[in-house]
Amino acid sequence: SGGKWLRQFFVAPRPPPKCLSGPRGFLFASESSDAGRLLYENTVLPQCFRIFGISVNPALLNLMRGASAPLLVLLASSLCCDGARLGTGARTTRDLPIPIHPAGQNQAALRPEGREKVLRQSVEGIAGDELPLEGVFFAVMSYPINVRGRNAIRATWMRDMVALGAHYKFFLGADDRVNQFVAWEDVDKARDDVVLLEGLRDSHFHLSFKTGATAQWIHEHVNASYIIKIDEDVLPVAQHLAQVVPGLPRARLYAGQLVSGESPPKNGKYMLPKEFREAVLDENGNYPDYVRGNLYILSADTVATLASQHDPRADPLTLLPFEDIHVAMVLRGKAEVAPTDLSWALPGSGDGGTQFLLSRRRYRDICAHDAVPSLCANYDFMAYHPVSPWLMLRASAAAAATEKDGQGKQLRNGVHNTACKYFDLDHSRFWRERNQTLEYYELKQWYEPERVVFGDAAGDSNRQQLKTAPPESSTAVFLVLADLGEVTRLNVRKWRAMAKRSEFAAKILYDVAAVDRDALRELAGNAVQLISMSMKEQAAIYPNASYMSFSGLYGAPAKPAEITWMASEGATKGRGAEAQGIEHAWFVESDVFFSGRYETLFRKYLREPADLVSPHFAANAPGYPDTFWHFWADCELASGSVHAHSLISLHRISRALARDVYAYLQSGRGGHHEYVVPQLCIMKPGCAIHQLNPHENTYYYRYRPAHNLEWVRENWVADRIYHPVKSQAQIDEQTPTVEQHKASAMRRAEQWQKRLAESECK
């Protein structure tokens, strides 16, 4: 009967009419196995219609209420009726009402069994001039200061999405001081791709509010069939999305990588605040089903639901801070929309097909040393997370140069290979650090100088050494003092000698509450400039929260005073860096010891133009975000992909970077100086970091434990950096702290071993 109906309705006279009467779109269901052949052979479909989606997947039929036919064909009139094709223009066909299953319904039919896919066969492309991502809008959640990240996105995967018909905007919180950071961005006004959400302060704890504000803006300004919410540290593959998205339902859609039966962690960044537990968790202490917030796909009506529930006058802190779970609860409670699992999306180039997302959360809990290579060998992925701007650029370059086989067929995708290679390294380091076989400060094993080199594609230029060294007088060298102990006195003598042997601007920055100026002057001589600092003075310059988190564990004034002197001439009454023509300055804490002449070390880097030079640099602090340190929560710069950390007990900083740090702190934002300084540099185009080569410069450089000068003599290597080095009296005073530190490390190791024993790890 289906074939007879087709012939009666679709058989066209010759020549075919310019426009068929009747509906502009069809949803055709038939039990006939040859219905697809009949559609092509006996109708005017090749002339008047485009096939928009064909599927024989029974799981897709479960999306239909009451449907039981094994074949679905979604048709859209295009060539024969001007303006009638599906799209985002003013004249579009009406979205067909294909509801997903109601909330609470068992989703087993949507989950993979073996190698079955949620969407077994997706649209391979649309005939004619139709672009596969027309009607798709990317809402990229970005942090205001991450200018380099946005530049990398524009130059890599977003360029590919736009070429396939998609549109996009970056969404940024726009509190009163955010414009000073947006000013870093060289945005073409004709492009206008940044949306500032007025009155919103960007913060991890405000993400649910930001998502609601974004949904409201999209609902009011965007005409799109699909909205893809994506974080700025996700790297999607355009070809895969172009195959999957056009075949998804256009109504009641909330799809991504499903998370089911998850309980909140007991510590770390994602620990659930107590005030939300009763309202969010079920009787088993689990979250409701949701999809990962890094990347998910919504239809226009689900975005409208989110927009309708957003109150711009609400306090963001009253909302659940985890936006992915918050979105799931809103859609379930207000529209009975449940999440659709796209974990298995496509047949792919890997033996096991294409999965939705390869993320750190996916492989971190797999203890096998070859976990990532196994995943990457067996599966392809639609997206990768977390991916830094540096890795995006490298992956894009690799994709452009992907090798082909003898028949010209492209081998494994360059994006896939690049991301998997880095994730494998990340996974290996993570487990070795957890197993106590790799120390965090084992600098030689963590050394990656290429991690901070950015290419021209991101709007940056590779930083080459200067051909001519600038004069030594353009570099200040500070010894930072909080005492006049044994090691400090030795360093002061070295500073006095350096002032006579070099043209470096030798200075000592000392805490007036702990150091007697007259005694210091007698020890340092007249050639070294003495600059005082105090907690009261520095705390008055910066907002209280910014000062307390940036200064460090003890509220010491040293790091704020450094930024003040380098960045603000007015704050130092004409004695600042600008007034003295200083472009860079070294800052050396008093418990650093260099087994040579300091000027030898400083001269070595005169031709290095980098804004931050440090012996230690970690692009991703291991354990983040599972390992909790409260200063991470204070630092509003860090993301999963770029959680940079530098132990800057000895470092060189440029005046330009110091000014950026000063502006950041004045905006009321905070974070420990070991995170804020490198993180800001990574996010700003043109800023560069250089790590001292540990094979040439460093012998022992870490946070704990401290050693005395006798230990240094026993482990002496010329022209090497040692830290921390303290007098025996200071070490004895700190013994309880050191012992507590060791005991804490032992407890963590025991807990980790217990976890391994309870798991399937060998």
TrEMBL record:
Cross-referenced Gene3D superfamilies: 3.90.550.50
Any single Gene Ontology cellular-component annotation: Golgi membrane
InterPro entries for the chain: Glyco_trans_31
Keywords attached to this entry: Glycosyltransferase, Golgi apparatus, Membrane, Signal-anchor, Transferase, Transmembrane, Transmembrane helix
Highest taxon of the lineage: Eukaryota
Topology relative to the membrane: Single-pass type II membrane protein
GO molecular function, one term: hexosyltransferase activity
Subcellular locations according to the entry: Golgi apparatus membrane
Family: Belongs to the glycosyltransferase 31 family.
Name of the protein described by the UniProt record: Hexosyltransferase
Species: Lotharella oceanica
